[in-house]
C-alpha cells in the first residue's frame, strides 16, 4: 500500500526520475507572463526590416544550407520515383477492387 512504514532497510523505493526542463531547473515558471509577452512583442518589432535587407538575409540563410551532392540527388530521385510507383499501384489496386466489388453487388 501507499502508506507502508519504512522497514529500516537502506534501500528506498522511489518513483521514476522525471525530466526537468531548462526553465524548471532555473526556477522560472512555464506559464506565459506579461513580461514574456512584452519581450516577444519587442523582439518582433526589432526584426522588421526593409525589402533590401530582407533579400540580404535570404542570401545569408541560403549560404547556410547544406546542399546535397549529385550522387545524393540521384539516390533521392530514385527513391521518390519508386515510392511514387508504389503509391500509384496501391491506389490503382484499391480503386480496381472497389469497382469490382460494386459491380458484383449491383450487377451480380
Layout: helices, strands, pairs:
Elements lengths: L21 H5 L7 H13 L4 H14 L5 H37 L2
Describe the structure.
- The protein is mainly alpha-helical and 108 residues long.
- It has helices spanning 22-26, 34-46, 51-64, 70-106.
- The chain is extended and about 70 Å long.
Which features would summarize this protein structure in a list?
4 helices, 108 residues, mainly alpha
Nutshell version of this structure?
The chain has 108 residues and is mainly α.
How many helices? Answer: 4
Overall helicity: 55-70%
How is the biggest beta sheet arranged?
none
Order of helices and strands: HHHH
Q: Please state the structural category.
A: mainly alpha
Low-confidence stretches: none
What is the molecular shape?
extended
Amino acid at each position: 500500500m501507499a502508506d507502508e512504514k519504512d522497514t529500516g532497510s537502506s534501500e528506498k523505493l522511489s518513483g521514476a526520475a522525471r525530466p526537468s526542463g531548462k526553465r524548471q531547473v532555473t526556477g522560472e515558471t512555464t506559464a506565459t507572463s506579461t513580461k514574456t509577452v512584452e519581450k516577444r512583442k519587442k523582439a518582433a518589432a526589432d526584426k522588421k526590416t526593409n525589402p533590401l535587407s530582407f533579400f540580404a538575409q535570404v542570401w545569408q540563410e541560403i549560404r547556410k544550407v547544406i546542399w546535397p551532392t549529385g550522387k545524393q540527388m540521384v539516390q533521392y530521385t530514385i527513391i521518390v520515383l519508386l515510392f511514387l510507383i508504389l503509391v500509384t499501384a496501391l491506389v490503382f489496386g484499391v480503386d480496381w477492387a472497389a469497382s469490382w466489388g460494386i459491380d458484383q453487388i449491383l450487377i451480380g
